[in-house]
Amino acid sequence: MSADTDVEALRRQGRIVVVGASLAGLRAAETLRDQGFTGSLTMIGDEPYEPYDRPPLSKQALLGRARPEDTALPRRRDIDADWRLGVAAEGLDRDAEQVRLANGDTVPYDRLLIATGTRARPWIHPEEAALDGVFVLRTRDDSAQLQRKLTAGVSRVLVIGAGFTGSEVASACRELGLEVTVAERGPAPLVGALGGVIGAAADRLQRGKGVDLRCGVSVTALEGDYGGRLRRAHLSDGTAIDAEVAVISLGAVRNTEWLAGSGVAAGPRGVACDAGCRVFDVNGIVTDDLYAAGDVARSPHPLFDYQFLSLEHWGNAVEQAEIAAHNMVCAGTKRIPHLWVPMFWSSQFGINIKSVGVPPLGDQLVVVQGALAEERFVAVYGYRGRVIAAASFDGAKWLGFYQEQIAAGAPFPPEYHTVDRRTETLQPVDPDFPDPHLPTHGPTVTLSGHSPSERRVQFVPSRA
């Protein structure tokens, strides 16, 4: 029997703990069992529900076409796990190999998967966030509460932030016949994710569907009445908007606070790990008992200049979870990297918007199919002379081809007249992404390599 076989036999036993009863956590647990793991498996989740699907919460659930309680994720197999639900992880003791829970319990592990995902960024003023009518949208309970409010006879909704989630909420509100104002501090909707050129098309789309879109402004205050109910919002341009509901859509916060003081390389940008999902410690040394997957993870990708990428994508969570689980039970020579090409989709205002690759990395853009003014097009992003991403409005059938071009490092601008059915010369333009140091709403891929403007990490002595 080889040494690798001996190691694998041992790794298929013992205690594995998954922190995060999420899409990534569930798919990892299923893969562990598929890969022959026979030891104890513990699933820890801060919500009282088993893993459920989040994308329908800002779409079908708000429209009443699906109940939030009916969004449970389908099971691929029985995972024979000990579920610890409704209690959050509060700390990690790597020396004792224990996860500390908020109720004071501890859960021992031999290997640990961090899949704690993200939460909605809250409104900046807690007393205003507590007003009746102010919502965030991330969880099953959030969606149920917001849907009840939207169907209770409100007259105007304010959406703060025109990223993907905010735009989907605005779309649902218009479909429900509600008046909607969207306040976006960037120059256009979706600008942080797709750039200003595509953002201009999203701007026209929203205005054409009756959205009162206010770009280049921030909400400075939310005002309530004497009963604690939201009644008005004040904007940075000096105007005010009467509204009974405000949906805060200011992006996501990665759930890493519970790892503070653990010696793990974790912070606001996520948990740093290698391409095999193994977590780094604060000194940049890879661990062999800690793994990360899903929205909370950030790892280098060779297709994208080895930038650390944090991906808020459904498909990435599944793929990365399966890679992490495989590597948790396999010996070194059989481990595989996570090299998934990012992919994201959104349905809003009757349009299917989809992207592949990393648009915010692009320094040039060409429209290769359709036209921006037609709200039906495919745009390709270039980076240093090669194809790095593509985005489409109602043109998803073309993106599989461009996904292959991204993986192959194909040259930019593309010259596929037969495929794209174009005869005019492709003229690259600046995709018009905002200054990365300025806040915008809604990027789904975060480039999270070291920024020279940040203070570097202070190294600490390694544990004995």
UniProtKB/TrEMBL annotation:
Domain named Reductase C-terminal: residues: 344-415
Cofactor (UniProt): FAD
Region (Disordered): 427-464
InterPro entries: FAD-oxidoreductase/Apoptosis, FAD/NAD-bd_sf, FAD/NAD-binding_dom, FAD/NAD-linked_Rdtase_dimer_sf, Reductase_C
Stretches of the chain forming a coiled coil according to its record: none
Entry keyword annotation includes Signal: no
Protein name stated in the entry: FAD-dependent oxidoreductase
The organism of origin for this protein: Streptomyces lunalinharesii
Taxonomic classification: Bacteria, Bacillati, Actinomycetota, Actinomycetes, Kitasatosporales
